[in-house]
Amino acid sequence: MNKNALIECVPNFSEGVDLGIIKQITDQIELVDGVILLDVDPGKATNRTVVTFVGHPDAVIEAAFLAIKKAAELIDMSKHKGEHPRMGATDVCPLIPVSGVTMEETVLYAQKLGKHVGEELEIPVYLYESAQPNESRNNLSVIRAGEYEGFFDKIKLPEWKPDFGPAQFNAKCGATVIGARDFLIAYNVNLNTKSVRLANSVAFDVREAGRVKREGDAVTGKVLKDADGNDLRIPGTLKAVKAIGWFIEEYNVAQISMNLTNYKTTSVHQAFDEVCRSAQSRGLRVTGSELVGLIPLSAMLDAGKYYLQKQNRSIGVSERELVHIAVKSLGLDELVPFDPEKKIIEYKLRHAENGRLIRMDLRAFADETASESPAPGGGSISAYVGSLGAALGTMVANLSAGKRGWEDKISLFSDFAAQGQHAKDLLLILVDEDTNAFNKIMNAFGLPKSNDEEKKLRTQAIEDATKYACDIPYRIMETAYGILPMLAAMVEQGNPNSVTDAGVGVLCVKTAVRGAYFNVLVNAQGLKDRAFAEDIKSRAKQILDKNHTDADALIAKVEAAIM
Asked: Is the distance from CB of 518 to CB of 484 less than 8 angstroms?
């Protein structure tokens, strides 16, 4: 397994009111090295807290075990009341592969955690989703049916013997469901009603399982059966969606509470719009929505692009603007303020890291560059200058998309703007990565060399780090040069009032490519692998030559246009 493997763990604890208890549980998670606590989201009406943390798989399951243990000590399920279905102090504990780890490997970690909890804590444990080999009991709602109150009898049935732990229900801490699954988005949509009946009607309209088919009246009619005696169902409109309706006293509204089990099959914006359609058909209105836990950045960006396209506007706006459009379009800030830095998983991970140059303001970045530290240096500056070239081209594309009389060209310029945004964001990442590459070399030189084995490892580490330090500026060259076709289109086809802006973008790209080329050459000098060194130098020189030729031709066109 990749030593940098990351899995996410999202345990749900049956306590959402006593913040002291929640803090004691999350303190256990933060005791474990290699784990980052990303989010703690308590809900008073549901009396439930969703916690999110990530780390190396071994560290994650250690932290999860300690949290489950502490929850069992502090939460008394015999006194628990809440809107959300539940069966234990730690009601559910899913593991989700993030990077460098397969679902199959994540399943093994879930099973290892389940065994540890069952045997050491004597808590009945049920596996679910991918971790459960028995398909008849891998669905969370099926396992949890009957909830806490019904499990005293359910656990005695042979078919409901726990996967781990005693086949006897623990009145104080209940049972726990542990599994491995893909990323799930917990998402609630708010209605302008207090009626749970109406909310459930909408939920049944949209959820994949739909509703049971009845004879005559859709509510009171006799349930129809198939030849095997199973309920006939009318499927809902959304795949990979589970939903129920409930009333949230805290907000004094009814909600459609949804789990999007595969947001790539049904996106957040598709779910929102479908609930809006169903609600309107029943005389209701959607007033906003609420995210429980974290959401992937891609889901927010997709929503932002979707709503911009509905407005016939360019999608080539900044990442920040796309997120803002998504928040406002989905009404994610209706009930409580929505802070992207706390709710988007990539942003939370980003803030857990230290020293990111692209998080500095302009003055701080300039001051850092001017300091006595050798990094950031020419490579990082080249990447940043390239990002400014991409930003200027993107600006011209967006201005062109919004130009009166050019409405038939919106799609064309929107696509160019999106290309520019993508290149700009990648180059901003490379600003930091070039400095990281320098630090890798310095760290390799700092390795011990007291014996032959250590010297051998140190030499290889220096070689590997130096190759990486060649690759990063080469990627800067590739990415920056790749912007020129977009800039060429802006010079030749874009809003003529902004031709000089596109021209300055070309100059930025020309500088970025040559600056990064310097870094490829200087870092390649120190390589022992001369074949690698000569190859990357040759490829870099080809980009440099093409870049100069193409950039100079565009600069001549800009000068001709303004002479």
From this structure: no
pTM above 0.70, yes or no: no
Among 41, 56, 84, 501, the active-site one is: 84
Active site residue 422: no
Half-sphere exposure of residue 270: CA atoms within 13 angstroms, side-chain side: 16
| Cβ–Cβ < 8 Å for 191, 256 | yes
Residue 355 has a pLDDT of 43
Q: What pLDDT does 215 receive?
A: 79
- Clarify whether 205 is annotated catalytic: no
Q: Catalytic: which of 91, 302, 432, 434?
A: 434
Domain boundary among 180, 197, 231: 180
DSSP 112-162: HHHHHHHHHS---EEEEETT-S-GGG--HHHHHTTHHHHHHHHTTSGGG--
Structural domain ending residue among the three candidates 152, 180, 208? 180
Q: What are phi and psi of 165, to 5 degrees?
A: 85, 180
Count Cβ atoms within 10 A of the Cβ of residue 320 and give its class: 0-12 exposed, 13-18 middle, 19 or more buried: exposed
For residues 549 and 509, membership in a common domain is answered with yes
pLDDT value of residue 61: 96
In the chain (563 residues long), the average pLDDT of successive 10-residue segments reads 77 92 94 87 88 91 96 92 84 89 94 96 94 89 87 89 91 93 91 95 94 77 79 90 92 94 93 97 96 88 95 90 96 93 80 63 88 86 95 94 90 92 90 87 88 90 92 95 96 94 96 96 93 95 96 95 87
Structural domain including 325 reads: 185-348
Cα separation of the two ends of the chain: 61
CB 150 within 8 A of CB 175: no
Q: Which of 475, 488, 286, 269 is nearest to 393 (CA)?
A: 488
